[in-house]
Design a protein that fits this description.
Elements lengths: L1 H15 L5 H21 L4 H18 L1 H7 L44 E4 L17 E3 L4 E7 L12 E7 L4 E11 L6 E2 L4 E5 L14 E9 L5 E3 L3 H6 L5
Antiparallel strand pairs: 1-8, 2-7, 3-4, 3-6, 4-5, 5-7, 5-8, 8-9
Length: 247
C-alpha cells in the first residue's frame, strides 16, 4: 500500500508540473479530485485506493497553493455566513444536526452520519424561491479558497445524495468546504474565490433533498486536513454563529 501511495503522489506531481501556471496546476488537481469524487460515488474504487488518491491530491494541492497561502493568509480573514440575508437562526436543529460518528469520505456505501449543518430558507411551496423576496437565495463562500470540484447537472433520475455541489479548498485553514443541494452553480474548477462571493443558488437537488418531506436548505460541511492529508469533519456551528451576515 505504501508503494502504491508513493507512486500516486509521484504521478500527480508529474501531472501538475506540466504547467508553470498555478491556476492551470490547480485546474489539473481539481479535475483529479472531481474524478475521484465520481469514482467514490460510483464505487469503482476501493476505500483504501480512494484514500490514497485523496492524500496524493491534497498534498500536491498544498504545494501548489503555498504561494497563495504565504501572500494572503492572516488573522484578519473573515468568516461570512454562507446564505445571503440569512443568519445562524436558520441552522436546522439549533446546531445539533452535526453528527460525525461513522463518517467515511472514501466509502459511499457507509450512511447514517451527518457531519454537517443544514441551513433552511423560507420556501414553503418548494420552488427554490425565497418566500420573502421572491428571489433565489445566494450561496456565498464562507472563506477564500480554490474551487476543486463542482456538480451542476443533477437530474431527478440520479441517485446522487449531494445533488449539485461545490467543493472549495481553503489554503489558510488547510481544509475543504462542501456546499450542496444547489439549483444553480456559478463557479468552475480552478476558480479562486473570496469570502462572501456568490458561488451558487439554494435548491432542492439531491436524492433526499428533492423529496417533499425535505425543507429547502443548504448543506454545509467542513473537513479539516490532518498533517498526512486525511479529512476530519469539524463542527462549523461556532463559525456560523459568529460569521458576518451579508444582506
Amino acid at each position: 500500500m505504501q508503494k502504491t501511495y508513493r507512486i500516486a503522489i509521484l504521478l500527480l506531481g508529474l501531472i501538475a508540473a506540466r504547467s508553470d501556471a498555478p491556476r492551470e496546476q490547480m485546474i489539473i488537481l481539481g479535475q483529479a479530485f472531481q474524478q475521484l469524487n465520481t469514482q467514490i460515488r460510483e464505487q469503482t474504487l476501493t476505500p483504501d485506493s480512494a484514500q490514497m488518491r485523496f492524500q496524493a491530491i491534497m498534498l500536491q494541492l498544498r504545494e501548489v497553493t503555498d504561494p497563495l497561502r504565504q501572500k494572503s493568509c492572516n488573522d484578519s480573514i473573515r468568516f461570512v455566513f454562507p446564505l445571503k440575508d440569512y443568519d445562524a437562526e436558520n441552522i436546522g436543529g439549533n446546531g445539533f444536526g452535526f453528527r460525525p460518528r461513522g463518517f467515511n469520505l472514501f466509502d459511499h456505501g457507509v450512511q447514517g452520519s451527518h457531519p454537517a449543518h443544514d441551513i433552511f430558507v423560507y420556501d414553503r411551496n418548494q420552488d427554490n424561491i425565497d418566500d420573502q423576496t421572491d428571489l433565489p437565495v445566494d450561496v456565498l463562500a464562507m472563506r477564500p479558497g480554490v474551487v476543486v470540484a463542482t456538480e451542476a447537472n443533477w437530474t431527478r433520475e440520479s441517485s446522487y445524495r449531494g445533488g449539485n455541489f461545490v467543493w472549495i479548498y481553503d489554503p489558510c485553514l488547510d481544509g475543504l468546504f462542501y456546499y450542496a443541494h444547489h439549483s444553480k452553480v456559478i463557479v468552475n474548477v480552478g476558480d479562486e474565490v473570496v469570502a462572501g462571493q456568490k458561488i451558487a443558488e439554494v435548491g432542492r437537488t439531491g436524492l433526499n433533498a428533492a423529496k417533499p418531506r425535505s425543507g429547502t436548505h443548504l448543506h454545509l460541511m467542513y473537513l479539516q486536513l490532518t498533517p498526512d492529508a486525511l479529512p476530519q469533519p469539524i463542527n462549523t456551528y461556532d463559525w456560523l454563529a459568529d460569521a458576518e451576515v451579508i444582506r
